[in-house]
Amino acid sequence: MSTYDNNLRLEEIGTGERSGTWGTATNTNLSLLGKALGRRTKAIGNVATVTLTMPDATDTNGETRAMFLDLTGGGQACTVTLAPDSVSKVWIIKNSTSYTLTISQGSGANVAIPANSVKVVATDGGGGSAAVYDVLDTITLTPKTVTATGRIIGSKIEPFGDTAASDPAAIGYTSTEGLILTGQGSNNDVTIKNDADAEVLKILTGQNDITVLGTVKPLGDTSASDVAAMGYTSDEGLILTGQGAVNDVTIKNDADATVIAIPTGGTATTFTGSVKPLTYHETRPTPDTTVTGTKTVDLSTGNVFEHTFTGNVTYTFSNPPASGTAYGFTLKITQGSGGSKIVTWPASVKWTLGVPAVLSTGAGDVDVFTFFTTDGGTTYYGFTVGKRVS
């Protein structure tokens, strides 16, 4: 009795069977075997599931016997079951529909083939628990060169190994350098383009400079550990930071000369040339209207200070800039209720002819004084700008 338990469902003639028709059966098997090595097309309906059964020793509905099976038609995502579930076979299946086709055989693993894609799958013929495998899901090639004339499409590409100076175009990876892009073009070594095929970023051939053709828009704050960084926050706006031995930030002109510098660890800004603002403003801390006793003027907070005396006052000046930087400030003093309050100036203040300034005595009288220092506050020079200017 003939059986069909092989993976192509060909007729296996039993001993003594097919007397007089043995040649016909054999020729049918050979014909089916030839078709199994070819490409066939099978249309599927607009259904969610369909079973394609390989028939026994006939070509009627026998497209599933082909090595290359092109599935067409459809109309929705569909699960395609390859039957019988005892067939263990390799297929190259092309999904020519506009929807994902999921290839199944039993309750085991399935393989999804996106629209207009091709996959090589293998069934294990395991009966009710049969599984379908994506043969090329993970592939190792030796030699390690793959030539493609079309596109290489995948969810991700993970290179392993460094690039070399001889690579005309390569993607690499090392544990220390991370992702590596390299190339050898006559104009650029690396070019990054947008979806309009326009250059966005490029590294000129043989150079270390990066040319950015558009706008650089940093997102996120910098940190104290950044050796050189540009950032942005909604509160601070554009942020420049760095860590140099002399300066944290240096801005140069096209002659490579320093124009603006922020010395390392400092908050002062050094301008090499002239500063030419359209307008000039000085910082005025909130006026103190109840000054009496010892009063410390924190010079790091501004340049113009306003005090109303409610008693006698002894001044201390603190936190001037470091020696070598000139700093000046203005002090406006108003006599409070009753007047006749007395001021005692710091001993470090030098006055004209060595005579310390005294205050007007009338209630509401306003006196204005200016001071400057160039040695970090060791010596201040004081001047009376106006008396009783109220």
Q: Roughly what percent helix?
A: under 10%
Order of SSEs, N→C?
HEEEEEEEEEEEEEEEEEEEEEEEEEE
Instruction: Give the end-to-end Cα distance, rounded to a whole number of Å.
Output: 127 Å
Overall 3D shape: rod-shaped
- Total strands: the figure is 26
Written overview of the protein:
The protein has 390 residues and is mainly β. Among the domains are: 22-134, no CATH class; 169-212, no CATH class; 288-386, Jelly Rolls, CATH 2.60.120. Helices cover 4% and strands 39% of the residues. The strands form seven sheets. Strands 20, 21, 22, 23, 24, 25 and 26 form a seven-stranded mixed sheet that branches. A five-stranded mixed sheet has the order 1-3-5-8-9, with no helix packed on it. β25 and β26 (380-386) form a beta hairpin. The chain is rod-shaped.
